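User: Hi! Is it possible to get a structure for several chains at once, not just one? Here's what I have:
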Amino acid sequence: MEELILELKQEIIAVLNLEEVAPTDIADDAPLFGEGLGLDSIDALELIVLMEKNYGIKLKDPAQGREIFKSIRVMAEYIYANRTK
Amino acid sequence: MPKEILVSGGGVISALGAGKEATLTALRERRTGIAPVRYLQTAHTELPVGEVKMSNAEMMRALHIPEEEVSTRTSLMGMMAVREALEHARIGGKEGLRVALISGVTVGGMDKSERYYLDFLENDTKNAYIATHDCGACTEMIADYFGVFSAVETISTACSSAANAIMLGAMLLERGLADVAVAGGCECLTKFHLNGFNTLMILDREPCKPFDAHRAGLNLGEGAAYLVLEREDTLRRRGAEPLCRLSGYANTCDAYHQTASSPNGEGAYLAMAKALEAAQLTPRDIGYINAHGTGTVNNDLSEGVAIQRVFGESAPPVSSTKSFTGHTTSAAGGVEALIAVLALQHGFIPVNLNFALPMPELALTPATDEQPTAPLRHVLSNSFGFGGNDTSLIFSRV
Amino acid sequence: MPLLVRKYCHIANREVRVNGEAFPVAESDGDGKFLTSLYRSLKIDYPKFFKMDSLSKLGFLASELILRDENPRFAPREDLAVICFNRSASLATDALHQAAIQREDSCYASPSVFVYTLPSIVTGEIAIRNKFFGETSFYVCEERSAQQIFRTVRHAFHDKATRAVLAAWVECGGETLEALMALVDTECQAGIPLEEFLRGANIA
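Assistant: Yes, the chains can be modeled jointly so their relative placement is included. Here is the combined structure:
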C-alpha cells in the first residue's frame, strides 16, 4: 500500500502538472480537493482518466470521484480493491 | 445603441432541417432533431447527437458544387445557411453595398483533418485539405463561394462565437464600416470535440434535459445560422422589410474558471444586465429568454441563478432549444438568435423539451407552453463559451 | 479620441522587452522551458500557470509583464476588455489532443488538454487571474494586419462600458512563439498612439 501511495503521488504530480509540489508535500490523509493542492474539476476528470489508463478502473459518474479522491490514502485503497491492471 | 440595427434576413441549417420553415415547423410540432449517430464516423454510437440530416455530398449537390472540390462539412453548412440568409434579405452582390461576413467557428476544418490525418503524414494525396483546417479558411471558403463580401472576419470564442459575430456585425454597421453584415456561425460535429466533451463527462447518454433536476449533460449538435443585419438608412434605401431590431447586446467575462461557470453566474448576470441597459429596457420588457441551457448540472444552475438575479421571481418564459438541436457549439449563438427571431415574428414560445422536475435550488421552471402570456415585444438570447465568455443579445419588434 | 498605448511588451525569439526595455530571463533550453524560466523570473506565485497550454502561458506571461506594477494590482474591473488575435488558433494543443485520440487501441483523451483546444481560453485565463469582467474575444486571422487589430480594438471602446483594452497578438504554432501585447487606456494622458505602435511593431 505504501508503495502504491508513493506511485500515485508521483503520477498525480506528473499528470496534473503540479510543478512545484514534491511527493513529500502531499500528506497521505490530507484532502486532495478544496484547500491544499488547489485542484479543480478538470483535475478530477484527469484523475478519472488516470485511474482508467493505469489501473483499468472505469468511473461512469464524475460524482463518484468526490468520494474516491478524498485523500491519497482513500484513492490508493480504492485502486487496490478495484484494479484490473 | 447609437444607430438602429435591423435584421432583414436569416438562414439556418441544423438537426431540425435546412431552412427557417423546417426549423419553425419542428419547434412548433415539438419534434426534436436529436437522434442516434448517423453521419459522424465514431465509436461512440451510444451518444445521441443533433446531426444535420444531410451528407456532405447532398449539401454539395444542393449548392451546385462539383463533387471533386475541396470542402469541409462546416463550410458547406455555412454556405447553406448564408445562401438562405442572402436570398431572404435579397442581397445579390450587385447593390453597390459593402457586405461583411462575420463567422464564428472553433473546430474549423477538423472533420477533414481527422479523416486525412494519416494521409497528411504518410502521402501527399490529401494535402489540399491541410489548408482547409484553419478557422479562418472556413470563413474564406464561404466568402469565396458567394463572392459578394467586401470584408471577412472570423471570431473564435468557443460556444459564444456566433453570438459575438452578431455583436461584431452590429458594431461594424454602427461605425459605418459596412452597409450590411451577414453574421453568425457554423460548426460540424467531429470526433475531435465529441471525444473532448466526452472526456469532460458532460455528455448525456439520453436526450438532454435542460433545467431539469435530473439533467445529466448535453448532446452535441451541429449546424450553421446567420442573420443579415443592416442600418435603417440602408434598409430604407433598398426598400427592404425588417424582421425585427437587434436592440441590445453585451459580452462579459465570468472570470471564474476555464470551463466551469461561477456559482453566482456573475458573467451571465452582467451580460444580461448590460444588454438590457444598452437596449434601454427593463427586465419586465423581456417576453422570452432563449437560454444557453446546455443541460449540464453546472451551466443550468449558474445560468438559472443569473436569470433570477436579473429578473427576480417573475422571470419571463425561459427555454433551451438545445433540447431540439443539441449544442451546436460555435453555431449555437446564431441558431438560437435565429430561433429567438422566429419566436418574435410568429409570437410563440419555443418550448423546453424533456423537462419533468424543477431544479431544487431555484424557483425557475422552463417553458413547456408555447402560448406567451402577453404578445412578445422583446426576446433575449444567451450564449456562453468556455473561458467564461458570456454574451446576451436582445431582439425587439420593429 | 486617439487611442493611446500606456504599456506594452513583446516576447519573441526567447527575448522579452517591456515598454521597449529588455527584461532579463534566466537561461533555459526549449521554448516550453523558456516560458517556465520567464514565469520564474517574474517571481509570482500562481501554480495554475503550470496547468496551462503554451498559448495560454504565453498570453498570461505577457499580461503579467504589463500588469505587474499596476496599482491597485488586483482590483476587479468591468471596464477592461481582453482581445487576442493570431493565425493558427490553438494548433499546437489541437495536435496533442489529436495524437491522443488517434490511436484506436489506447484512446485516452486528456480533459485538460482538450480544454485548451479553444484558443479563447487564453483570454479567460488573463481575466480569471485579474478579475476582469469586461469583454473578452479572440480573432483568428489569415495574416497579421495592423489595420484589422486597430479597428477591432477601436470597436471595443464603442460600447461606453469599456475604458481600457488589453490587446495582443499571441501566436504559438509550429516554430513560432510570439506575443505582442499592449494596454490601451482611455485614462492615459501620455502614450504611443495605437496606430503608430502597431506600425512600429512591424505588423503588416
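Chain A touches chain C at residues 16-21, 38, 42-43, 45-46, 49, 52-53 (CB under 8 Å). Residues 41-55 of chain A form the longest helix (15 residues).

User: Great, thank you!
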